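Loading example: each entry is read as two labelled lines plus one structure line.
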Amino acid sequence: MAEGGLISDAAVGTARPARLAIVGHTNTGKTSLVRTLTRDTGFGHVSPEASTTRHVERVRLLADGEPLVELYDTPGLEDPIELLHFLHGLVSATGERLDGPARVETFLASHEAHGRFEQEAKVMRQLLASDAGIYVIDARDPVLAKHRDELVALNFCGKPLLPVLNFVASPDAQPEAWREAMHRSAIHLHVNFDAVAPEQDSERVLYEKIAAQLERFQGPLHKLVECRERDARLRHEAAMRAVADMLIDVAAAAIEIPLRAKKPSPEAARAFGGKVIERERACVESLLGIYRFSDSDLEERELPIVSGYWDQDPFDPAALKALGIGLSKGVGAGAAGGAAAGATVDAIFGGLTLGAGALIGGVLGGGTMIFKKHWPQVSSALHGAKRVLINDGVLRLLLLRQLYLVKQLESRGHASVTPVKDFVDKPEVVIWRQGVLPATLQKARARPVWSRLNGEPADGTGRRDAVRKLRVELEAGR
Amino acid sequence: LTITVLARDFRERWLAESVRRQEAEHGPVPDVEAVRFARGGGGDLEQRIIARARRLPGAERFAAQQERFLRQLRGSWLVLLLVAAVLGFGVSLAIAGEPSTPINVFWAAAAFLGPQLLSLALWAAGMMQSSASRGGVFGWAWSRAALRWLPRGDAAQVAHAFYGLHEQRRLVRWWLGAVMHSAWSLAFIGMLLGLVMALSLRSYGFVLETTILPEAVLRRFVAALGWLPALFGFSQPEESAIRAALDGDAWNEAARQAWAWWFMGLLIIYGLVPRLLLWGLCSAQLARGRRALRLELALPGYARLREVLLPGSDEPDVTDPPAPLPPRIVPRPRRARASGEPVAVALEPDGDPWPAPLPAGVHDAGRLDNRAEREAARELLEARGPRRLLIACNTALTPDRGSLRLIDTLAAQAGEAAAWLAPLGASGSAGYQAAWQRALASRDFAAEEIFTDFSEALAWLKVV
């Protein structure tokens, strides 16, 4: 059982998962850490009160169905000063001096382990039965005597301890003081890990540092990390695909209006806008599904979907302004007073004259591209109608909103990660705000058959390839 | 036969894909039981997705739709084959024409094989064009037709899924190729039957005619066309037969036999055999592609299921049950004879806020952090027996059992005790004030013994 024994660790084999006890002072975020590591937002109970967790709960971490790590969430230590005092006072039945683990075992057999130290005994018992401990620290707390005693008492178990500095991003955090205290207890590895809003790769760092102290479990821990990162990649890819799919639908969406009409009737415009809004909502739902966010998570995490700006109608010029998107041509002063949807919908080719003229010139000049591009417009004109598409500004808005949502969901929705304001000013986002739209999206403008909003079930090879290509373009822009 | 006969693996993926489309359009189906079943079955994500799809409430409906779709497909295909065979038969009779007019050898050969050549060339071009990877012209035609005329509802999901899966592995062209080549094969079988019947039951003559070509060209042509069939044992017309045909001696008995076999050779070797081979090739490619087919797990509809079917963790399990809860209020002992001067003490302050300026006549028992300080404070209180004790608690810290026990111990040494809740941390955060209030209440502190205002606390301390 002993780690780093005389027998080669590899020879021992790793038939069972690594057992990790999550220990620490009360109310430092142990259960939150387990929730984050398991991605199970329903695990245990979390509250700002002390001693919320009063039992030991095990959960296995699986990689493709195979259990690789067992996490044990333990109650918080609450009286470490007296505990350490008690441990120090222990002697063997024959009066000999005891080493750490023997001392802990004597303690566990004592009457006090079932009395005033019952909660502490649960922690020590579990740590003794585990391969290593993850010692969760609220980095905002000052390093007090009780914390130092806690470290000494936990070290008696003789297990590797990996301190996890929780809330280290807080302005009140005192990571230096904590590091110093850990060194004094001969603990030289630690990780910064915000249990609620962890950095992208902090989970990898956490497992790697555990693996560094548990040679025997390096393989499984590495596998777990790889599996988690692969899943994250796949989730991201699927999410971007869902966004691309929605954007293609909206970009290619068109309504036909009579040739002579300047803009669609308010009813038609509203119905059209309604479809677009519905499509965006469906996309949001799809993303929430991919990242496994339930409605209760949304409320808990205060995602922007439920707060203010998300509720804004994408056709409301104010919504565009809030994201720093300028309205493109065709939407001028009169727009604000017009029907909401009509305002930001404009006819891309300015009616037939330009469309047909360009077409004829293009064909005579031998350019088939122009023919292709203008064909839907012309084909509509043949039966006495012209097509009206969604304005670029609205497309940009939908694009930004969904990219932002993906980012939020990936950082598990912690509201403080990237405020909308900072997000829209990132260089990779500014491209979509002001620069040219992705090429595939522009192409989709002239492909009404690609849009599911045009009444027909859109499918087929061209659309499928376009969605794939657009996903790559969105990815490259970021 | 690969056109309508499907391996089980493919059918299952087809079902899963139909379900995905259905859910994408109409929202997720209630799947608690199906998910439990799929998780229990193990396997990789794809296997679990399939298991879930098979267990969903609407699965039988989809399976029935699949059967129906395949039946319709098989029916249409058989009709197509039949029509092709009948057409071939008819074409063959038409080309043979009336026995009174001798058959013009080249004219007839061109009539039999010309369309074949043209159609093969078109097919090959279609396969080679740049968009061939996307299904080519046929795929495009198919998808447009399918999208426009396919029924809606379950049947549409099933049909779209069938197309979509083939399209995903670029199999539509092979599927359509198999359909087309099978139809042509049957057409050639029909032609052969027609030809055999015509030649068996009626008397035809053969002529080789030309107006401007030299004879040698005709001969070479006959030899060239007949070369490949000859390799397979079809006899080339001999010199005498060619002579007879050239001379307009259409009814020469030996020559007619030779020409008849030459024709059959052409039809079989250039007509039927290539079509059968291509049919086989397309079927083989189709079968191979279907075997290699996997669900596209990056699609949002499948990605959504990853965490559900292959969760990152299993069900939590309590391995050590909670200790019984302490009594809600622990009665606090008070010291009976306490008349010493009031004392103030601070529990775990951090940084400057302690010692706070205390008025004269109040003893400061100091900051309590480690065990030695705690013991010293207890001893001091024991010796002095203060009539009132004020304990400053740091609301930047969580109240824990150790602190509360210490408060109990200290309070027991004084006549009366009260707590002052203040952010004694360097940061001044008072995050746990409410928690302290609740914790102290559980330790028998009355509401008027818990202060948040320092001057009020001092006023209380000095009451005699």
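Residues 253-292 of chain B form the longest helix (40 residues).
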